[in-house]
Design goal:
This protein is α/β, with parallel strands linked by helices. It folds into two domains: 226 residues, Aldolase class I (TIM Barrel); 78 residues, no CATH class. 42% of the residues lie in helices and 13% in strands. It has an eight-stranded parallel sheet. Bound molecules: flavin mononucleotide. Flavin mononucleotide binds next to β3, β8 and α9. It comes from Nocardia stercoris. This is Nitronate monooxygenase.
């Protein structure tokens, strides 16, 4: 058992979280992670309406009686979704954990706290983590440059970002970006975090509701198979390397604007990748930790393996290094 301040405050068995994932964070995946003792998270905006989110929350509850969360991603948008209504669907659904990402959590916090909901705020800089702590969130998920999705514009990798944040953050903090196995989990604990958040690793599990070829592509890919798009627009996103992401980068390098890539990056195209298995239909998020992913396990097997191997690492390799000294080479 790996008990940490995160497992205590958020009421889960293992310090392993499945972060919100557009199109993939559905009931089946979130419930499988929670059922295995991790924290599964349903992605709010994957549901087309707040009413559909209510149903998805009910469906998740039918699949597990363990705690699960809902992700609310606040990104700049010309026509923003009805966030307040999504938030109300979460509250009415009796969900007890919310992951907020992308924007300032302050607007939503009073409503969520009044409903007894624990708020985990995901951000990519120490500055934003400190701000979120000040406004009263219950936990921080700090996302390094390695991550899938939006790593921010500072390019700080986890190896520096996590201990830098740990120095300032007093509430439970989990490390995100580049984590895929027990070694990462133990490293995160050593760096000052109280657990890990994983996206790409959970995207590549048996219960993940994306096409099998997507999972096989992740297994085939290495740590080099990502592209950073939207760099020139100050809204960087790390996505899988494919014909479309390479094209977007080319257009940006040639001085193109968002209008020039709008069609290529449309959400509907990305959805087609996951649902139809057409790998070059659009852009899809994936992180550098693809290079650490070599199989498609069930969530239960993945989490059990990570916890078991983490314990072996701590009590074996690391303990030998300290206790046995020069006699044992870890
Ligand atoms: C397919 C996919 C979709 C994602 N969509 C979202 C999202 O909608 N909101 C969000 O906060 N994070 C999103 N993320 C980021 C993850 O929650 C997580 O922070 C990230 O994947 C961590 O990096 P890793 O992939 O190296 O584990 C997404 C990640 C993936 C792989």
């Amino acid at each position: 058992m790996l008990r940490t301040r995160f497992t205590e405050v958020f009421g889960v068995e293992h310090p392993i979280v499945q972060g919100g994932m557009m199109w993939a964070g559905r009931a089946e995946l979130a419930a499988a992670v929670s059922q295995a003792g991790g924290l599964g998270i349903v992605t709010g905006l994957t549901q087309p309406t707040p009413a559909a989110l209510r149903e998805e929350i009910a469906r998740t509850r039918d699949l597990t009686d363990k705690p699960f969360g809902v992700n609310l991603t606040i990104l700049p948008s010309i026509s923003p979704p009805p966030y307040a209504e999504y938030r109300q669907a979460i509250i009415d659904g009796g969900v007890k954990i919310v992951e907020i990402a992308g924007g300032n959590p302050a607007t939503h916090l009073p409503y969520l706290k009044d409903a007894g909901i624990k708020v985990l705020h995901k951000c990519t800089s120490v500055k934003h983590a400190v701000k979120a702590q000040q406004v009263g969130v219950d936990g921080i998920s700090i996302d390094g440059f390695e991550c899938a999705g939006h790593p921010g514009e500072n390019d700080t990798p986890g190896l520096v970002l996590i201990p830098a944040a740990a120095r300032e953050i007093e509430i439970p903090m989990i490390a995100s970006g580049g984590f895929a196995d027990a070694r990462g989990l133990v490293a995160a604990l050593a760096l000052g975090a109280h657990g890990v958040n994983m996206g790409t690793r959970f995207l590549c599990t048996a219960e993940s509701p994306v096409a099998q070829v997507v999972k096989e592509q992740i297994v085939a890919n290495s740590e080099l198979d990502t592209q950073l798009i939207f760099r020139t627009m100050g809204n960087t996103a790390r996505v899988a390397d494919n014909a479309i992401s390479r094209r977007v980068v080319e257009i940006e390098r040639a001085g193109g604007t968002f209008d020039d890539v709008r069609d290529l990056v449309a959400g509907a195209r990305g959805r087609k990748v996951f649902e139809d298995g057409d790998l070059d239909a659009g852009i899809w998020s994936a992180g550098q930790c693809q290079g650490l992913i070599h199989d498609i396990p069930t969530c239960a097997d993945l989490i059990a393996r990570m916890v078991r191997e983490a314990e072996e690492l701590i009590t074996g390799r690391l303990t030998n290094a300290v206790v046995a000294g020069a006699g044992v080479r870890p």
